[in-house]
Task: structure prediction
Amino acid sequence: MSTSAAAPSPQPARVVLAEADIDRALTRIAHEILEANKGSKDLVLLGIPRRGYPLARRLAAKIAATDPGVKAENITGQLDVTMFRDDLKRQPTRAPLPTQLPATGIDDKVVVLVDDVLYSGRTIRAALDALVDLGRPRIVRLAVLVDRGHRELPIRADHVGKNLPTSSAEKVRVRLAETDSVDGRPVNEVVIEDRTA
Amino acid sequence: MRHLLSTEDLGKDDAVRILDTAEEMAAVSDREVKKLPVLRGRTVVNLFFEDSTRTRISFEAAAKRLSADVINFAAKGSSVSKGESLKDTAQTLEAMGADAVVIRHWASGAPARLAASGWIDAAVVNAGDGTHEHPTQALLDAFTMRRNWARINGTASPGTDLSGMKVAIVGDVLHSRVARSNLWLLRTLGADVTMVAPPTLLPVGVAKWPCTVSYDLDETLAAGPDAVMMLRLQGERMNAAFFPSTREYSRRWGFDDRRLQALDSHGLKETIIMHPGPMNRGLEISAAAADSPRSTVLQQVRNGVSVRMAALYLLLSGETHAAPATIQEAQR
Result:
């Protein structure tokens, strides 16, 4: 997961996904989700804060656009995993964010977890633990915008926007118009910054 | 935030953060599994040198919902009655591995002493000390008021403060740590506070407090407060004659049925009646007022668990012993 919504850093950064690339990737993922699920039946998209949630909403909108029987807001939710992280004792205190489930709940649903960057896999492990306390989905799948490798747990994504080979000295930043702005202007982009530079 | 000792030195950002965190904790109480794994393997000690039901149970419930282990310690029936000092008691608990000590003490300043003395490493939470402060009570009162205030204003409560809200705190202000903690916190959050009490039950320095002082409850109610907080008459701390009779006190400063009707006739539909408990029914609050839809007494108890969960979480979840954060960890 990338961090703060701050202004551009002085470090050299290169854009790996521009706005149109992100949109194309999300369109493809939306279709993949529908294909894997054989339609939109029982589908619930849960975004992991902060940037997974806007991505989940965008995916839901695309699914609703192809399937008129679906209302985007009825299948989207937010899943906060702060309390389930394994690094709480190593990090400065984080304030939890709201968890909001669709009114139908998640019991016996096909839940697709949505996050921006898949890295160590620890956030997803926390999300799986958080899900257990909320109900029992029939299937849990994972969709991410970027998979940058360096997994530390046996976790993989079902739907990936872009596989991005990185070194662990690099930082992958996802900026979305809903959460981020550069110079006061909302942006949609994925950039790689080299933190050793 | 290392300790939670008073609301007087609690900044607005920290206060709002605790209340916002409490909102998320409250959501956990509505879930099927009312438990979070955040404090697994941590030990919270409830160190109570003074009687208490709801505060101790509330802290115990809060710690257990966060999966902490809880040790309850009451001074009665312990080595304290053999003359053990606070220092020795605290160090004994530390040796047993307490990560947080929730302390209630009859002496004002005992929690601050515990936190500043270097006797123990654990986080100290003040659960009421003498007539000084009771910060978690003030936080749960503010949480209750904020939810009602947000509902009246038609907004969502997270992130907001209490600016513009008028609060009357009525009764035994002199002996009340709840009144003091509430005053500091409510001022920080932007509310206007009026203290209503007989002159004998106001402390000496009250003129310097950032509040209005009134001796007339009816006048204050006519001014249209948004919340009326009744304080318990603390008989156990009264060693002098502060008013002629309980009947006279009840007529002039108690929230009786007549005043409950007065709220309606003033057209104050949304005014809430609060009480930190335990209530002396028929003395500072009538049964009809305590059980009316305006009363938030049970909401306050429910919110107490959420607020204490938030406080324990924020005190205990951060970096413990400044572990060197590697680049990888910082990015997660």
